Amino acid sequence: MKSMKGRLRPGDTVAIGLMLFALFLGARNLIFPP
């Protein structure tokens, strides 16, 4: 993995955001089942 000190391209920030969003949804479903 690249060091986080380097500048992130817009596509990278979007990918990271989507990953965090997916992790959040997964954790919420585990803690609070629908």
From TrEMBL:
Membrane topology of the entry? Multi-pass membrane protein
Q: Which residues form a coiled coil?
A: none
Which domain of life does the UniProt lineage start with?
Bacteria
Keyword Repeat recorded: no
GO molecular function per UniProt: branched-chain amino acid transmembrane transporter activity
Which protein family is it in?
A: Belongs to the branched chain amino acid transporter family.
Q: What name does UniProt use for this protein?
A: Branched-chain amino acid transport system carrier protein
Q: What organism is listed for this UniProt entry?
A: Bacillus cereus
Source taxonomy lineage?
A: Bacteria, Bacillati, Bacillota, Bacilli, Bacillales
